Amino acid sequence: MILRPFLYDETACASYLFGCLTARKLAVVDPHEALVDRYLAEAERVGAPIVAVFETHVQADHVSGLPALAEATGATPYLPAGALVEFEHAELADGAQVELGNTRVRALATAGHAPAHAAYVVSDLRRETDEPWLVFTGDSLLVGDVGRPDLHTRG
């Protein structure tokens, strides 16, 4: 499994290119609009196409690169179930899985930071187990803290 971090320094927004090089299936999670060309260049450098784009939640932190990346690659855009967007996408309910060759991505509903929010639990099957290897939390779980759940309350 490949895992490449990308950081947009101005807002400290992190995104990741990951997936299976054996089956040549890559994905990007929480892409930033300003980094689309960098994701594409890295995918070309490693010789595998981007076939999926995941958002953990509808972004208020940055301008999402999901539409541009999906258009440039033909990748399937995935969002948590209940995400209120007006473009074609696949919704991932709690427990839904996406197979990227030897990389398995499972949606874990983590509503709180945003009403429609999912963490993505990733297993690398080449490790001879389906136990999770990493999780993309998208601001719902931070080192020593949790994402603010009060941003979407009505008062």
Description:
With 155 residues, this protein is mostly beta strands. The protein has two helices and twelve strands, in the order βββαβαββββββββ. The protein has a six-stranded mixed beta sheet with strand order 1-2-3-4-5-6, with helices on one face. The chain has a four-stranded antiparallel beta sheet with strand order 7-8-9-10, with no helix packed on it. Helix 2 links the parallel strand 4 and strand 5.
Helix run count: 2
- Strand line-up in the sheet with most strands: 1-2-3-4-5-6
Shape assignment: globular
Mean pLDDT: 87
Q: Gap between N and C termini, in Å?
A: 45 Å
Number of strands: 12
Largest sheet: 6 strands, mixed
Low-confidence stretches: none
Q: What portion of the residues fall into strands of 2 or more residues?
A: 35-45%
Rg over CA atoms: 15 Å
- Helical amount: 10-25%
Structural class determined from secondary elements: mainly beta
N-to-C series of helices and strands: EEEHEHEEEEEEEE
